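Hi all, long-time lurker, first post. I run a small reading group and we've been trying to get comfortable going from sequence to structure in the token notation. Rather than ask abstract questions, I figured I'd post a concrete chain and ask someone more experienced to write out its structure so we can walk through it together at our next meeting. Sequence below, copied exactly:
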Amino acid sequence: MPTFAASIWAALFAPAGSLREATARINCDDNLILKKPDALEKMAAVGFDSIGGTPEKLRDYLGEEI
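-- Answer (accepted) --
Happy to help. Here is the structure in token form:
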């Protein structure tokens, strides 16, 4: 299957109806952590790529890929 690709990913999810302000703060903090050199180094050591992004970007990705 020449077009087959497999990937593993992880994401943070909050319950439906969560306060927008709370999810925005968690998202902001998470993205800051994902950009720290020590975090990037540890993730790279186990083969992870740090992407980060917004809840909307994750929603769109899930809609396209699953």
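A couple of things your group might point at:
Residues 20-65 form one domain.
The chain is about 55% helix and 0% strand.
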